[in-house]
Amino acid sequence: DPYLIVWLYLTFIFLYTGLEEKKQVILAYVFAALGFLTKGLIAIVLPGIVMLVYLIWTKRFTITTLKTLRIPEGILLFLLITLPWYIA
User: d(Cα 32, Cα 46) in Å, to the nearest integer?
Assistant: First the structure.
């Protein structure tokens, strides 16, 4: 579990800095993928729900904010990291 905690922590940090400073958000997807490889779906669900609640709470749930998160590139990177393990 310590590995999952580290990956989740880094995912949260880079998601938050990606929103505030508009940089390095893509690293959040890398750390989420590593967390997924470590413990499974919780590494995606927990950050996803927390970010959704945070964006709704701060009234920043807009198309512009979602573009800042670079979701299509992040999903592609996530799949590039995780799929080889599951295919093998």
Answer: 10
> Looking at residue 9, what DSSP letter applies?
H
3-state secondary structure of 53: helix
- Nearest to residue 42, comparing CAs of 13, 15, 72, 3? 3
41: Cβ contacts below 8 Å, ≥ 6 apart: none
- Give the mean pLDDT per block of 10 residues along the chain (88 residues): 94 93 90 95 95 95 92 95 92
10 Å CB burial of residue 31 (0-12, 13-18, 19+) is buried
Rounded to two decimals, what is the model's pTM?
Answer: 0.91
Q: Checking phi first, is residue 23 left (phi over 0); if not, alpha (psi -120 to 50) or beta?
A: beta
Q: Could you tell me how many residues make up the chain?
A: 88
